[in-house]
Amino acid sequence: MGSRWQVEKKRDPYYKRAKNEDYRSRASYKLLQLNKKFKIIKKGNKVLDLGAAPGGWSQVALERVEEDGMILAVDLQRMKPFTEENFHSIRGDFTTPEIQEAISSKLEGKANAIISDASPSLTGIKNLDHLKSMDLFENVMDICYNHLAVNGNILIKFFQGEKAQELIKANKKKFRTFKTTKPASSRKKSSEMYLLGLGYKL
């Protein structure tokens, strides 16, 4: 199983592109594609990246905000820092009160965009993985409502399933645009989707 996955990874065109173009992860292309289409992150933005390791999304966000913006990356895993002075990171579980307090301190205000490509520890059991994904999604949304600026944008990964529609409906009125989307670089056999929220209404 492991060797087959390694072979598939090496054949993956986005894996090859990431290596050639010096991106930390093939996941960089998901954010590149969605940001090109929806303008989630703009120059000068303050961006919170939840579940950031190994840094593929933070890397793209740094390119988009340029020197006037700021990136705050949070992850349980140790993450190699970027050299840019406007990059900051916190190591820890963003669902805990301690790390959320640290986020507040580091942000020094509200984020213009909150992005999350985080995934729970998967079991391979579709229904269980979906429920774990939705629990993580709810935690990310709680952070969004505490740390997102008015008119801010969000992009959050989740796995398809029954509970997803309930959560979409519950949060839809909070944003000018709230919809599901999937970039071309997302693996076709994956059940992952992304929730896009534009124009937070507070």
UniProtKB/TrEMBL annotation:
Positions contributing to S-adenosyl-L-methionine binding: 55, 57, 75, 93, 117
Q: Which compartments does it reside in?
A: Cytoplasm
Q: Which UniProt keywords apply?
A: Cytoplasm, Methyltransferase, rRNA processing, S-adenosyl-L-methionine, Transferase
Please give the chief subcellular localization of this protein. Answer: cytoplasm
Q: Which GO terms describe its molecular function?
A: rRNA (uridine-2'-O-)-methyltransferase activity
Q: Which Gene3D superfamilies match?
A: Vaccinia Virus protein VP39
Domain Ribosomal RNA methyltransferase FtsJ stretches: 23-200
| GO cellular component terms, A-Z | cytoplasm
Top enzyme class: transferase
Enzyme Commission number, as recorded: 2.1.1.166
Q: Which residues form the active site?
A: 157 (proton acceptor)
Matching InterPro entries, A to Z? Answer: RNA_methyltr_RlmE, RNA_MeTrfase_FtsJ_dom, rRNA-MeTfrase_E, SAM-dependent_MTases_sf
Q: Which reaction does it catalyse?
A: uridine(2552) in 23S rRNA + S-adenosyl-L-methionine = 2'-O-methyluridine(2552) in 23S rRNA + S-adenosyl-L-homocysteine + H(+)
Q: What does this protein do?
A: Specifically methylates the uridine in position 2552 of 23S rRNA at the 2'-O position of the ribose in the fully assembled 50S ribosomal subunit.
Task: Spell out the family assignment given in the record's similarity comment.
Answer: Belongs to the class I-like SAM-binding methyltransferase superfamily. RNA methyltransferase RlmE family.
Name listed for the protein in its UniProt record: Ribosomal RNA large subunit methyltransferase E
Question: What does UniProt list as this organism's lineage?
Answer: Archaea, Methanobacteriati, Methanobacteriota, Methanomada group, Methanobacteria
